[in-house]
Amino acid sequence: MPSGKTHTKLNLIALPVLVFLLVSYGFTSWGFLLWFSGGFVAGTYLLSPDLDTHSSPYRSWGPLRILWYPYQAVMPHRSVLTHTFIIGDLIRVLYLLLVLSPFLYILNKNVLDGQLPMMMEQHKPELLTILLGIITASALHIMADVLNTKRKRLFHRKRRRR
Ligand SMILES: [Zn+2]
Asked: 79-99: string of b/e by CB count within 10 Å (b at 16+)?
């Protein structure tokens, strides 16, 4: 597995390239690019597949990393549930929403006058764009993991042959 720093570096190098590709494919809306990049950065620093282990994204949560204790306890590192395209991200986002649900409930009831579901409905395109950014960041992470494993295997095979 590449180190956390390598993953972050790879993703941050890839982001301008991705934005360039998106623009060249006609996704020129600033809003879209901004939400996508935001999701991508969040996916790199906070919602990475490596939350299943004591990784730098896990430490990025600071004291709030306590939220990920149960997740880590249940998920084996690099399991299908954490390191699979889209599925891993959906599980992480749903898990986070579940853990935050008491807080969201209080927020909705006492601060937002029960408007939270309506607000989420109104901002659905933005939320989906953020999710797309998160999914893209994880996809790069998973690809880097797979390529690195293949490279290591190749290296080991060569050594064994000698
Ligand atoms: Zn990983």
From this structure: eebbbeeeebbeebbebbeeb
What is the distance in A from the centroid of ligand 1 to the CA of 118?
35
Cα 31 to ligand 1 centroid, rounded to whole Å: 30
Q: Within 13 Å, how many C-alpha atoms sit on residue 140's CB side?
A: 24
Closest CA to 64 of 76, 51, 77, 75: 51
Q: End-to-end CA distance of the chain: give it in Å, rounded.
A: 25
Could you state, in order of their start, the residue ranges of all structural domains in the chain? 4-156
Contacts of 127 (CB under 8 A, 6+ apart): 120
Contact, 1 vs 57, CB < 8 A? no
Residues 6+ apart with CB under 8 A from 29: none
Cα(46) to centroid(ligand 1), Å: 13
Mean per-residue pLDDT, 6-23? 97
Summarize pLDDT for 36-85 with one digit per residue, the tens.
999 999 999 999 999 999 999 999 999 999 999 999 999 999 999 999 99
pTM listed for this prediction: 0.91
HSE-CB of 71 using CA atoms within 13 angstroms: 27
